[in-house]
Model the fold of this input.
Amino acid sequence: MRYLDTDTTKRISRIGLGTWQFGSPEWGYDEEYSKRAATAIVRRAVELGITIFDTAEIYAAGRSERILGSALAEDRESVFLADKIFPVAPGGPLVKQRAKASAARLGTSRLDLYQVHYPNPLSDDRAIMRGMRSLRDSGLVDEVGLSGYSVARWRAAEGALGTRILSNQVQYSLVARSPENDLLPFAQANGRIIIAYSPLAQGLLSGRYHGANSPTDRVRATSAHFRPDSFARSEQLIKVLREVGAAHAATPAQIALAWVIRHPAVAAIPGASSVEQVESNAAAAEINLSDDEDQALRAASQWSLDAGRQSSPLRQYLSRLKHCAYCAPYVAKTLWRDLRHGA
Done:
């Protein structure tokens, strides 16, 4: 495993583990996955040197946090736990209550990274950053992060917090490259990091899915990545991923992950459906792509992007709205429970 060059208290692995799928039926996994496979995946990830584990209070209304915390067991305090708060009712007291509730579900005394899940479209970040500052001062939170923020709003949030905001979690992959425009340069120049979610475009870049094998789970089946025209646009990119993979005895998914983390400010947090997949993901950290391979992948990627304009701000905004639609019932359930019972 390789790690980011940061001054954080704990090391951050270049490949992490995203856990939205833990306990969330919309991904198509059964109860056996949540009760047993998820634990095996987490335990193997720890063995492989993965340190960053990403979850959120709204993932299955806190069940993802519970599954992850239970699976980590005695390793909870040694890994880099990244959690997220949904920016509803962002006043200070409620922010503290929700952070304490998330920490309790994870079974930890400290959140290594507490991220604002989305930029609130109705208000700025002054209120929630007052809450974050209080959490840092109390020792409950070590680092503050964001998700889906522009550079301008990232800077404004740092001004409101009064100190650095370590990270911004955004969609970044060979078919979603808009962070290269300004987020990645900003992060690299200022000692910040980008946490790349959906680095495999929900599995599109694995080459597993195509016109004759479309996904059936609710998340992927409704994704623009898996429309017939998207399959057609991605054919050349998948071909190049396979060609580069052959030179490294690697899969297309491993090459796609290796490409994402080639940037020094990026850590990727793919999910995993099995122990074998988390092993494959971790192994991608050891792949060194040449400049020629990088350029070949970029050229194939750009053709796909130009053909479908996948990286447009409108498409990204619609993708975030869809994510919110999935999570809305969990948001309501989580907030109601925390308001009734506290931490």
